[in-house]
TrEMBL record:
Lineage, opening ranks: Bacteria, Bacillati, Actinomycetota, Actinomycetes, Streptosporangiales
Keyword Ribosomal protein: no
Annotated Pfam families: Pyr_redox_2, Reductase_C
Highest taxon of the lineage: Bacteria
Protein name: FAD-dependent oxidoreductase
Length: 402
């Protein structure tokens, strides 16, 4: 068995393969020089200088796994379905019977020849932290999750922080402009200048050149405008590739052979690089969240060993920004309406998305109990009373009808 990608999903796949009874050879190939580590702390505790090591504990001897660190997969040749194939890599050709693709995603960058920081690896986090010094002018492009967390850390370290966002509100892509707008005052409160509706043309030495003319001067530019799986090593492999590797609900890779739904039983893809079929939502989901990287590999590894379990949980995500714990569960892509639960200009509040009397998703700000209870209601799909959901004094579980 070969696992390509040494992030959390890759490590969890290794553990799950052994846990599900795989006794044969097992190799993990990862482009980074470090053993698997957690990324969420990079934009939080690591930038804040509270920790420098986020390695995920693993007993590699017990796992009997060969670690090929600092090595990159460069190509994939598949034999007949079910017969494995060969991963071409910088460490040579690696034949396999079963393959886990867990190569995650890479940050999108902006045009221009000026220095731009992105934040995906521990080395990038350490490098950026060294630049977040008192008085430094830091311009962050993108008021998404990463942008908000970097702004939080930079402001705390005494930097003069400006966040530039093309949309009209922070977190617009993730939450929609109406809900995202409720987070805008948090920037000013932290002394961060938020400039929305501003498009960047390119990064130049000394700052940003704006699309409408004009520039913003900066000592450092941080770009947090999203990520995209790098699937170039899978070109020509015969796998169906869209924004991610397209899989069925058990993470088996689909083939691009014109036969709808035909899969490779010996190739799975999981984590940030996989677009998996969700029966719950009736469409593929590509979820770039830690929770999926942690839990989904169990199902993917079982599938590779012949199992048929399906992964169909509602997505979950958290962010720590401007002194708040922000959590989200569910999926509101097709929701009909928004219900406010508490005053969104206050300190603690939630927002729910509903369709008829079904709770589709919830966003909670320092209301962890709402999150936990709503997660269960969303998973069960039980109808709720919208008026009770709108009342922050009524526990979410008591809003369930019947
Ligand atoms: C700064 C930061 C903060 C985050 N904060 C949160 C948070 O608060 N909450 C949350 O839910 N999620 C958060 N996330 C997202 C979460 O960390 C990811 O969803 C998770 O790391 C995905 O794990 P993965 O194993 O699929 O991919 P990755 O962690 O990206 O790991 C993929 C690995 O594969 C390697 N690789 C890529 N291509 C190749 C190749 N061709 N050959 C060999 N190796 C290759 C990469 O170098 C990488 O080491 C954050 C992410 C970042 C970057």
């Amino acid at each position: 068995m070969i696992v390509v990608g040494g992030g959390l999903a890759g490590l969890r796949a290794v553990e799950a393969l052994r846990g599900n009874g795989h006794e044969g050879a097992l190799t993990l190939v990862s482009a980074e020089p470090h053993p698997p580590y957690d990324r969420p702390p990079l934009s939080k505790a690591v930038l804040a200088g509270e920790t420098d090591d986020t390695t995920v504990e693993a007993d590699w001897d017990l796992l009997r796994c060969d670690l090929l660190l600092g090595q990159r997969a460069t190509g994939l040749r598949l034999d007949a379905p079910g017969r494995g194939g060969v991963v071409a890599s910088t460490a040579g050709d690696l034949p396999f019977d079963g393959l886990v693709i867990a190569t995650g995603a890479a940050p999108i960058t902006l045009p221009g020849d000026g220095r731009q920081h992105v934040l995906r690896t521990i080395d990038q986090a350490r490098e950026l932290r060294s630049r977040l010094v008192d008085g430094a002018r830091i311009v962050i492009v993108g008021a998404g999750w990463i942008g908000a967390e970097v702004a939080t850390a930079a402001a705390k370290r005494g930097c003069a922080v400006t966040v530039v966002e093309a949309a009209d509100a922070p977190l617009s892509t993730a939450l929609g402009p109406e809900v995202g707008a409720f987070t805008a005052p948090w920037y000013a409160e932290a002394g961060v200048e938020l400039r929305t509706g501003v498009k960047v043309a390119e990064v130049r030495d000394g700052g940003l050149l704006l699309a409408g003319g004009g520039r913003i001067d900066a000592d450092e530019v941080v770009v947090g405008i999203g990520v995209r799986p790098d699937l170039s090593w899978l070109d020509g492999s015969g796998l169906l590739l869209e924004r991610g590797v397209v899989t069925d609900g058990s993470f088996r890779a689909l083939l691009d052979d014109g036969e709808p739904g035909s899969t490779r039983p010996d190739v799975v893809a999981v984590g940030d690089c996989a677009a998996w079929w969700s029966a719950r939502y009736g469409r593929p989901l590509l979820v770039e969240h830690w929770d999926v990287a942690l839990n989904a590999p169990d199902v993917a590894a079982a599938a590779l060993l012949g199992g048929n379990a399906v992964y169909d949980v509602a997505p979950y995500f958290w962010s720590e920004q401007f002194g708040r714990m922000v959590q989200y569960a569910g999926n509101h892509a097709t929701s009909e309406r928004i219900v406010h639960r508490g005053d969104s200009s206050g300190r603690k509040w939630s927002v729910a998305w509903l369709t008829d009397d079904r709770l589709d998703a919830i966003l909670t700000v320092d209301r962890p109990r709402d999150l936990v209870q709503a997660k269960r209601v969303i998973a069960a799909g039980t109808p709720v009373d919208a008026a009770a959901i709108a009342d922050p004094d009524v526990p979410v579980r008591q809003a369930v009808r019947g």
